[in-house]
Every structure is written in C-alpha cells, then in structure tokens.
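Need a sequence for this fold. Nothing fancy.
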C-alpha cells in the first residue's frame, strides 16, 4: 500500500515541512511543501504573497498530493472569513483536490473540542491580532483575552521557547475568567510540548495553529487524524 502524500503551502521561502507533521504522523503519512517567501508577518507581507497561493497548490498537485492546505493562519484570516472561504474554493477549483487552510483548521478544531469562549495567545503584532479577533467573531467564537508576542520576523517565531508560550497561555486564560479553552495562533510557533503542558496545568483544551493544521489536512484527505499522546485534539 502506498503511503499518502499531502501538500502544504508554507510561509517561509525554503518550503520546509513543519516539524509537527512527522512528529504527529511518523511514517504513516508523507508531506511535501511549497514556500511562499513571506517577508514579514504583517498585512504588507501577506499582500506580497497571497496571489501566488493557487499556483503553489497546482504545483503540489503535480507532485501527486491527494489534498492541500495553506499552512499560514494569518495569511488566510487577514481579510476575514469570506476571503478565507474564497481562497479555499479557488484552490479546490484549480486542483480538483480537497483543499483547506490553517484558519479553517483552528475553527474546526475549536468546534471539535466544544470551545466557544476562547482565550487567545499569538505570536503577532497588534495589527494582526485585530484581524484574528474579527475572524474569530465572524466564525461565532467569543475571544476573551487576546495577547501577542509582537513578532513580525518569519524566522523568529520558530525560536520562541516552550516556557514563553506556556506563560502566555496561562496569562490570557487567567486574565478573563470563563474561557472554554485556549487558542495559540501562528503556524510558525513550535507548540506540541506547550499544548500538552498547558492542558495538564489548566485542565482545558488547547488548539494550536500548526498541529491543528495537520489534523485538519489529514482529516480533509479522508485519513485518520488521531495521534495518541499529543493533546486532546488528537485523542
């Protein structure tokens, strides 16, 4: 039996597969990626690359993938929920494949875990946090406390220590009581350890962009998205 191959469109130019994919799915599923060359995590940066998303999806189809995801949360939510849907439709139309985005992934994962009132920790500058709050509200969530690390450097997000993420999650969760769960937003953050730690410490589900992106893509391809021991979303 051949191993499924799934396609990722990622913000960094190098087009490397994010570490979470192999950590979650081992050799059960293979991933291949195309990079967009995002210059900075900001509206200006997104506008420079957003028009090349569909052509990257077509290039992935030519590599033989069976489903495609745009693995950039803010890249898909910065123009709102309707634009995210339109992007998904255009990718699917151009490739004839199941296509999704990381913004779909966080929404699908929060709903799967019955989280509606959400505490939000991000990597972003304030301008991007405003777009995220609006996208969550358009998607019928109630974002309570929302705070970012003010990072716009594409490489720097991958170097944020686990403890910094854990501390920010605890801070936003405790800032405004009543959250059903926590969202960590930014696909460049490395979060699997933080997710497990925060779930254990606070006793609520945690959805994070990159793991949720893989969960959503694998599910979109009709495959089993579970990965025991990797947090509530994967149970």
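Here you go.
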């Amino acid at each position: 039996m051949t191993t499924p191959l799934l396609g990722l469109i990622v913000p960094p130019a190098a087009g490397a597969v994010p570490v979470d994919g192999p950590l979650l799915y081992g050799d059960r599923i293979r991933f291949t990626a195309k990079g967009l060359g995002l210059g900075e995590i900001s509206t200006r940066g997104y506008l420079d690359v957003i028009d090349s998303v569909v052509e990257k999806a077509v290039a992935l189809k030519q590599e033989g993938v069976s489903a495609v995801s745009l693995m950039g949360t803010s890249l898909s939510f910065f123009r709102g929920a309707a634009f995210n849907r339109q992007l998904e439709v255009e990718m699917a139309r151009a490739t004839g494949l199941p296509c999704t985005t990381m913004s779909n992934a966080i929404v699908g994962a929060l709903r799967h875990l019955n989280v509606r009132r959400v505490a939000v920790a991000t990597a972003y500058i304030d301008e991007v946090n405003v777009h995220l709050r609006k996208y969550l509200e358009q998607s019928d969530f109630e974002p309570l406390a929302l705070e970012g690390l003010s990072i716009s450097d594409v490489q720097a997000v991958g170097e944020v220590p686990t403890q910094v993420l854990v501390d920010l999650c605890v801070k936003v969760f405790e800032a405004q009581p009543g959250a059903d769960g926590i969202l960590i937003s930014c696909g460049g953050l490395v979060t699997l350890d933080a997710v497990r730690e925060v779930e254990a410490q606070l006793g609520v589900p945690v959805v994070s962009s990159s793991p949720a992106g893989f969960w959503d893509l694998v599910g979109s391809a009709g495959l089993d998205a579970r990965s025991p021991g990797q947090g509530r979303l994967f149970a």
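For context: The chain has two domains: 5-101+211-234, 105-209.
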